[in-house]
Amino acid sequence: MNVLVAGGAGYIGSHMCKRLAEAGHRVVVLDNLSTGHRAAVQWGELVQASLGDTAVVKDALKRYQIDAVMHFAASSLVGESMKDPYRYYENNVIATLHLLQAMKDVGIDRFVFSSTAAVFGEPERDLIDEAHSCTPINPYGNSKLAVELILDDAARAYGLKATALRYFNAAGACSSGVIGESHSPETHLIPKILRRAAGESIEVRVFGNDYKTRDGTCIRDYVHVCDLADAHLHALDYISAQPGFHRFNLGNGAGYTVLEVLNAAEAIIGRPLAIPYGPRRAGDPAILVASSEKARRVLGWKPQRADIRQIVGDAWAWHQAPAY
Ligand code: UDP
C-alpha cells in the first residue's frame, strides 16, 4: 500500500514509517517540521507542508497514489492546551478536518487516527475499556474526542473507513537507536529521567507520593512505541476489511508506578539517580491503565515489549547518543 503518514517526522510517526517500510509499504511523510525532525524522516519522501495546505496535500495524495492515511500530527501537551485552547482546536481539529476533506475530494477512504487516553477524563475504574465514558478534562482531550466524533459521522455519511487508537503512555524507542523521542520541552517521565541521567540539566521530581497505590506514586500503562506501530498495521488491515469507524485502547493492561519506572531506569543505567519527591502535578489521576482486550481480540494485536525494563532500556539506547 502507499501510505501517507501525517506527522511522520515526530516520535510515534517516525516509528510508524519504519514499521510500514519493513512491512513492504511505500511511505510518504507529510510534516511541517514544527515539532518533528528532518533527520527522523528516513523511510520515504518528505512533503513539508501543514495539513491545512490543501493544494499541496491533495497534490501529494494524488501524485503518490496514496491508499491510506495515518495521522500523528498534533499538539499534545495538556498544560499548553489549558493555556491556549484555540491553538489546540486549530491544530488538532480544524487541521484534521482539512486533511479529511482533501482525502474525500481525491477519493481516499482509509484513515488511522492517533487518539489518546485523555479522551476518557477522570477514570471511573482502574482498567479502562472502550465502554468507559468519554468526558475529557482538558482541551487536548477534547480536541482528540472532537476528531473521533467527526470520524464517526464521516464513516456514516461518506463511507470513511476509520479507526481511532487511544494510546496510554507511549514510551521506548526503536532498538536500533536510529530514531527516538526528542521533544522540546520534554514533559514525559521516562525521557526526562533519561536525559537527566545522560547529563542534561533537567529538573525531575516524583510528582506526589501520597496516592492510593502500592507505593504512593501514580500508576501508568507504558506501551512501547514499536508495539504501537504494530497495532497501527493491524488496524490498517482491519479497516480495509471492516468499513465504519472503530475505536481501540492501546496499552499493556498492567501499569507501573513512577518509583517502579525509576527503579528500572537505575538498574539499566547502573547507578542511583537520586530523584526527589515533589508535590502532585495538577490533573494527574492516581491510576490510568488500559484494557486492550478489544485490540487483542479484534485486531489480533499482542504487545511484544511490555516489560518496563525493555521499554526503558530501548529508550536509554537512544538517549545516550540522540541523533536529533
Ligand atoms: N511524572 C513525574 N515526574 C515528572 C514527569 C512525570 O513524577 O517529571 C509522573 C506523572 O505524574 C505521571 C507519570 O509520571 O504519573 C507519567 O507522566 P507523563 O507526563 O510521562 O505522562 P502522562 O501520564 O501525563 O500522559
Radius of gyration: 19 Å
Taking the sheet with the most strands, its summary is: 7 strands, parallel
Helix content: 25-40%
Please provide the ordered H/E string of secondary-structure elements.
Answer: EHEEHEHHEEHEEHEEEHEEHEEHH
Question: Ends: how far apart?
Answer: 29 Å
| Helix-and-strand structural type | alpha/beta
Tally of strands: 15
Structure characterization notes:
It comes from Solimonas marina. Its cofactor is NAD(+). It is an enzyme of class 5 (isomerase). The chain contains ten helices and 15 strands. It is α/β, with parallel strands linked by helices and 324 residues long. Helix 1 links the parallel strand 1 and strand 2 (26-30). The two termini are 29 Å apart. The mean pLDDT is 97. The structure holds uridine-5'-diphosphate (UDP).
Q: Topology, pairings included?
A:
Elements: E1 2-6, H1 11-22, E2 26-30, E3 45-47, H2 54-63, E4 68-71, H3 78-83, H4 85-106, E5 110-116, E6 127-128, H5 139-158, E7 161-167, E8 169-171, H6 189-197, E9 206-207, E10 219-220, E11 222-224, H7 225-241, E12 244-250, E13 256-257, H8 258-269, E14 277-278, E15 287-290, H9 293-299, H10 308-319
Parallel strand pairs: 1-2, 1-4, 2-3, 4-5, 5-7, 6-15, 7-12, 8-11, 9-14, 10-15
Antiparallel strand pairs: 10-13
Helix pairs in contact: 1-7, 2-4, 4-5, 6-8, 6-10, 8-10
The structure holds uridine-5'-diphosphate (UDP).
Cofactor: NAD(+)
Subunit structure: Homodimer.
EC number: 5.1.3.2
